[in-house]
Structures are given as C-alpha cells and as structure tokens.
Amino acid sequence: MPQLPLFESAEDVLVDDASGRISYTPRFVDAPTAAAWFSELRGAVAWNAQRRWMYDREVDVPRLTAHFSLAGGDPAPRAVTQAAERVIARTGVPFNGAGLNFYRDGRDSVAPHNDHLYEIAEGFPIALLSLGATRRMTIRAKEPPRRVLRVDLEAGSLLMMSYATQLHYVHGVPKTDESAGERISLAFRVRPDRGPGQNDGTFYR
Ligand SMILES: O=C(O)CCC(=O)C(=O)O
What is the mean pLDDT of the chain? Predict the structure, then answer.
C-alpha cells in the first residue's frame, strides 16, 4: 500500500457496494501545486471548441477539451505527466490516457453521462483530478431508487469511480447560476488498446 504524503487528506468512500466504488480525496495535491498545474494547462494546452449533433442540429460542446496519450506519441504538457505520475503512484492503476475539460464559467458543463465502456479497459477505474474553481458533480444511480450524490470537486481533489459505476450511475457537472471561476479537470483512463495479458480486470469493480 503506497504511503500517504503528509499533505494528503484521507479518502472519503462515497459508495462501496455491488454497484461499484466511488471515493473522493480532497487535497490529493497541495494548493500551490494545483494552482501551478492550472495555470500551466490554461496557457499551454491547445484547447478544442467542439461542435456536436444533438437531435437535428449542431450545437457547441459547452466546455473546451483536449486529449493526451500517456503512452508515447506527442508529448503531454508537464503538468499532465506530473499529475498522471502522482495519480498512478497513489492508485497503482496504469492510466495511459488523459482527457482534459476546461470550464470557462458557470455556463460550461458536462451533461449526465457514463463513460463509454469501449473507451476504458474492462475492470479499470476512472480518476478525475480537479484544478481551479470548485464545481459540483451530480452522480445519479440509473436504477430505482435512483440515489443521487452531490460532490463539490475542489481544487487538488481526486474522485475515483470504478468500472462498475459506469454501468450503474451517470455523472455530470451541471451549469450553475452562481458565479463560477475557471476550472480544469483531468480525467485519467486506461485505454483498451494495451497489449495482451496486461489487463486482467482485477483492479476495481
Ligand atoms: O469535469 C469533470 O470533473 C467531469 C468530466 C467528465 O465527466 C468526463 O470527462 O467524462
């Protein structure tokens, strides 16, 4: 079991049952590091403004995005590789991809969704590292009684969601009328295109 550095706070387990495991660790990275990573990524990343078809019309994706492989190819910004190293060291999960989201203000959001299971290797969790302004995530069970969790994702925090939770819950960051500053999230995933025998699916439910 990796040792906890002094500045880290304890993991708060929000769900741990047949529907999967969700945990929240505030102050996973200290405030100066979170601020430095935020400022590097805000300035250095070539953020994409995407459009998406919704029913019969094309709409703006209400946030900016970027993607990096951690398994070679184009080098990721230093803040992404440093954050990935920290998350991998803590969790023991061989994350090989990072999806970044930039929420410019309270009008930016991500709609309730679960991760596409073909985009994550079976059995591996997703890790969400938050930088910048605090935004509330809503995690809603798909099945009755449709339990709802609301988690304020603070700068420097780490939210872990096991593979199984993608079957049983949707998660999203709703728009807010309250003034919200800029926020960047880093979503670490194990992409399924890894070599045979490297994914035995035993990490998390
Ligand atoms: O910004 C977040 O913390 C959530 C991002 C998310 O749900 C996703 O990238 O699929």
Answer: 91
